[in-house]
Amino acid sequence: MSTSRCPNCGAQIDSETPCETYFHQMLFWESEVPALGVVHHYLVLCYYIQHPHLYSPEGLRFSIGELEEFIETDITAAQMREKIASDVNSRTRKFKIKGTPEAYGAYPQPVAWTMNAADVVARGRDHYIDSVSQWAKSVYDALKGTGQLS
Ligand SMILES: [Zn+2]
């Protein structure tokens, strides 16, 4: 077993196990234990923001703005969904969320993430809600540290 770095988020990973595997593990936990879904919005935002090519440039900015609002205010996931419904509705949305090979999100300088998908999985399902909340805060802090927040 050899280690390498994820080309997208820089996490030190076992080369047989890309970050995506951990993302799927967490989705699986959420489906096994529905109560864990309370942090689903953080899971998606953290994973995608750390793998910015999955987003379009506009989608990345939009999602960073969402994360900022979640951390800085007490808005709930349900309230956020309602608020952005018109933005994400594909008929009214003015930009694509998902990245394409021609247009994908990237950072002007590398962001030094302090926590990643593998860390959350390593802490186990019993600590999932706490771990994902911490992950979200760490992503927010790392973005703030490199001046990526609005
Ligand atoms: Zn990664």
Describe the structure concisely:
The protein is mainly α and 150 residues long. It has helices at residues 19-32, 40-50, 57-72, 77-88, 117-122, 128-145, and strands spanning 3-5, 12-14.
Put simply, the count of helices is 6
**Total number of strands:** 2
The SSE order reads: EEHHHHHH
Question: Which kinds of small molecule does this entry bind, naming each only once?
Answer: zinc ion
Compute the average pLDDT. Answer: 92
Strand order of the largest sheet: 1-2
Could you describe the largest sheet, including whether it forms a barrel? 2 strands, antiparallel
Structural class: mainly alpha
Q: Estimate the strand proportion.
A: under 5%
Could you say which overall geometry the principal axes of the C-alpha atoms support?
globular
Percent of residues in helices comes to: 40-55%
* Poorly predicted spans: none
Radius of gyration: 15 Å
Terminal-residue CA separation: 41 Å
